[in-house]
Amino acid sequence: MATQTPTQETTEFGEVSRLKGIAFKYISFGASIVGILALGILLAYVFWDAFGLESAGTTWYLSYTVTLLVPLLTFFAYARTRPDVVAGAFELFSLTLGGVMLTVATVIVLSVIASPPVWFAYFLTVVGPAIGMYVYGQYDREATWVGLGILAAVVLGPVVGTIALGTLSSLGAMLGAPGIYFLSLVLPGAGMAAFLAHDRLELSKRQSIGIGVGLPVLAIVGVPVVDMVPQIARSVWLIGLVMFGLPVGYTVVNTAQRRERWAAFAFPAIAILGFLLGEFVVGVVGATEPSPWLDWQYVTSGPSISNAAEAGLYPAIIGSVFLIVLVSVFTFVFGVGTAIYLEEYAPATGPLGTITRLINVNISNLAGVPSVVYGLLGLGIFVNINAQLGPITYAGFGVGTVFTASLTLSLLILPIVVISAQEAIRSVPDSLRQASYGMGATRWQTIRNVVLPRSLPGILTGTILALGRAIGETAPLIMIGAATTKFSPPSGLFSKLTAMPMQIYAWAFQPSPDFRYGVVAAGVVTLLIVLLTMNSVAILVRNKYQQEAH
C-alpha cells in the first residue's frame, strides 16, 4: 500500500498537492504585484511629463505633501475598512467630474456645433417628446405604447424637425439663447430633479415639487449675480445649473441621507481646502512651481506642428466626444437588440436553429478580428462604395467623416457588446421567466420587466469595456482617412474629424523632444481622464441597477 506524504491528500478530484497550491498562490500574487507596479510606474512617468513636475522646487513638493497628500492618505487609511465611505467618496468624485465634463461638452455642442435656434427646433420635435414619454412610462408601467412612442420620436422627429426647421428656428431666435436654454434645459431639468427626488431619493411629494420648482427659481435669481461676472454668460450659467447641478445635487443629497456615508464629505473638503491651502503656502514662501504641458490653453487651442508651447488638443477632444457618443448609441441599441433576439426570440431547433448557432459562432469569431480589418471594412463599405455611387449615396458617408468613423468603430466593438449582452441575459434564471409567464405576462413584458433589469449590470459592464477599446483605436481611423491633424473641430456629423489617439500619434513623430515627451504625455493624460470619467459614471449606473436587481 502506497504511503501518502504530508503535502498531499486524495479527494474525489484525485491527488492534490498542497505544496503546488501554495506555490501557485504566491506566484499569482507576485505576478499581480509586478503588473500593478509596472502600470503604476508607467502612469507616474506619463503624469510626470504631462504636468512638468521636474521643474518644481523642493519647497513646492513639501508644501503640497503637508497640505494635501498627507490628509488624503489619512482619509484613505480611515476609509479602507469602511466600504460605505469609499462608495460615497467615489460617487461624489465621479459625478462631480462627470458634471464638469458634461457641462463643457454641452457648451461646446450648443455654441460651436449647433446654434441655439437649431437646438430648439430639434428639442421640440425629438428630445422633448422622447423625454416626456419616457418619464410618463416611469410613472405608468402598464402603458405599452411608451416604447413605440419613444421610437417614433427618435425616428420621425428628425424628419419633422428638418421640415419645420425654418419656422422653429425663427421662433427660437425671437426667444434668444437664454430663453431657449431656460425652456429646453432648465424646465426639463426641473422635472427630472423632481422625479429623481421622489423616485430615487424617496422624498415626499411636497419636497420633490419644492426641488423641481426651486431649480427654475434659482436660474432666474442667479442671473443678476452672473451678470456681475463678465467671464460667465447667462447661457453658460443655465447650462451649468442643469448639467452640473443635477448630478452633483443628486449625489450630495443621496450621500447626506445615509448616515454611514457622512464621512465621505471629508474627501472633497480635504481635496479642495488642501489645494487652496497649498496654493497659499506656495505663494507665501515663493516656491518654484511646475510648468505643466496640460493646462487650460492645451485643452482649448488647436494643434501646432512647429511650436510645442502653443500645441492644443481641442479639435481632437471634440472629435473623440462625437465618436464616443455616437458609437455608444449605435452599439448599445444594435448590440443589445441583437442579443435579445438571439437569446429570447430566435429558434433553438430546426433549420432556423442551425442558422442561429451559425450566427453565434460568427459573432464569436468576429470579436477576435484585428481592428485594422474593421478599418478595411469601413473603407470598403462607407468610403469606396460612396465614391463609386456618387450622388446616389447619403452625404454622410465619405472619407474621414464623423458618421463614417462612428459606424466603423461601432462595427469593431459590436461583437463584444453582443457577446457580453448574451451572457448577461443567459445568467437570468429561467424560473423568473416562467413565473412571469405564469402571472399572465407576455414575452415582451417579461423581457422588459424581468430579464432586462437583471441583466443590465452585465450588459453595461461589457459595453464599458468595449467603449474603452473604441476610444483608443487608431488603425480603423487611419484606414478610413481620418485626419491625423486638424485645426478646427468637426461642425456636424458629416464633417471630417480627428481624434485624440490620432493627434497623439502625429505628435509622437515630431523631431522636437518637447512634442515627443511633454505634448504627447499631456494628450495621453487627457485621453485617460476622459476614459476614466466615462467609465466611472458608467460603473455608478451599473451598480445602481445591480442594487435594484437584487
Spatial order of strands in the largest sheet: 1-2
Q: What structural class do the secondary elements suggest?
A: mainly alpha
Rg from Cα: 27 Å
Shape: globular
Order of helices and strands: EEHHHHHHHHHHHHHHHHHHHH
Q: How is the secondary structure organized here?
A:
Layout: E1 8-11, E2 14-17, H1 18-50, H2 58-79, H3 83-113, H4 116-139, H5 146-163, H6 165-200, H7 205-227, H8 234-243, H9 245-256, H10 266-285, H11 296-300, H12 314-345, H13 350-366, H14 371-389, H15 402-426, H16 430-438, H17 443-471, H18 475-479, H19 500-507, H20 513-549
Antiparallel strand pairs: 1-2
Give an overview of the whole structure.
The structure is a single chain. With 550 residues, this protein is mainly α. It has helices at 18-50, 58-79, 83-113, 116-139, 146-163, 165-200, 205-227, 234-243, 245-256, 266-285, 296-300, 314-345, 350-366, 371-389, 402-426, 430-438, 443-471, 475-479, 500-507, 513-549; strands spanning 8-11, 14-17. Strands 1-2 form a two-stranded antiparallel ribbon. α4 (116-139) packs parallel to α6, α12 (314-345) packs antiparallel against α17 and α14 (371-389) packs across α15. The longest helix has 37 residues, at 513-549.
Notable features of this structure?
single chain; 550 residues; mainly alpha; 2 strands; globular
Entry summary:
The chain is mainly α. It is built from 20 helices and 2 strands.
